[in-house]
TrEMBL record:
It comes from Zhongshania guokunii. Residues 67-191 form the YbhG-like alpha-helical hairpin domain. It comes from the Bacteria. This is HlyD family secretion protein. PANTHER family: BLL5650 PROTEIN, EFFLUX SYSTEM COMPONENT YKNX-RELATED. The keyword Methyltransferase does not apply. Its main location: other. InterPro entries: HH_YbhG-like, UPF0194_transport. The keyword Coiled coil applies.
Amino acid sequence: MRKRECMLVLFAMLFAGCSGDSARSGLTGYVEAEYIYISSLETGWITSSAVSEGDRVSAEQVLLSLDNERQAFDLAEATQRAAAAQAQWRDLQSGARPEELKRLDAQLAEAKTSLTLADIELRRLRDLLSKGATSEAVLDKASAEYSAAKARVDSATASIGVAKLAAREEALIAAKAAANAAEAVLAKAQWRFEQRSLVARQAGLVTAVYYRQGEQLPAGAPALALLPANGLKIRFFIPQSRVVEFAPGTVVSIHQDGNPEILSATVSYLAEQVEFTPPVIYSVANREKLVFMVEARLPPNSGLHAGQPVDVSLL
């Protein structure tokens, strides 16, 4: 009887050892997908949809378009305002217009002619005064007229100089700031107009379409879900005794049912906390109930599908 009990104990020990090796050789996990959800910052009616579930799209490909009449009006207004602000700034830089300069040149020529005549009259009266043919009062009047004519020439010359100058520095700074602000408003209007077409930021597979042509897309609501080429990962759990074996960067082998091909994945995440803590004090037996979640990134185009169960083991 004692011999039989000893054989049973030995068999149990062998079985436990085999089970432990089996448990260490492979783990069960499943495929997890990280989707990209395409949405719009503003609400709008979907005017066209270019993709359906199962379509593969490339980066920058247009997925759907929203109505853009209001954004087009805002863009046209911003364009005109920016052009007006730029024209105002250039006008202040260039000084007076050619027509104004021609008018000032004509005034200067007239003033110079008057000065010449006044000079001639002043010289004539001085000669007559020396001969006693005129009075001091007449000469004083001619001298005053000469001074006034000379002042008009100086004033016209100064006016032409001012007209050729640009506006004051403060006015130029204000005009330049207004032009820059108008350009910023224009860029914003252009950006809002372009946002009415939703594009794929990276290549991937369209897995779900939530809103279709003719429906109104709420602001921030996902219009469709996109699975990028590198959007699949394996999620599995390991006992606390094997944490040191699955550090980030570790390469593991992936086996799926019905497919003899062995894939490889790289551990990208190891949980910092356990998934289960026993409600009693720790013991050797209870420590085996502690598990940690591990995630391993799959290479692009692995052929696996979200939710698919797989076997994981170390290479």
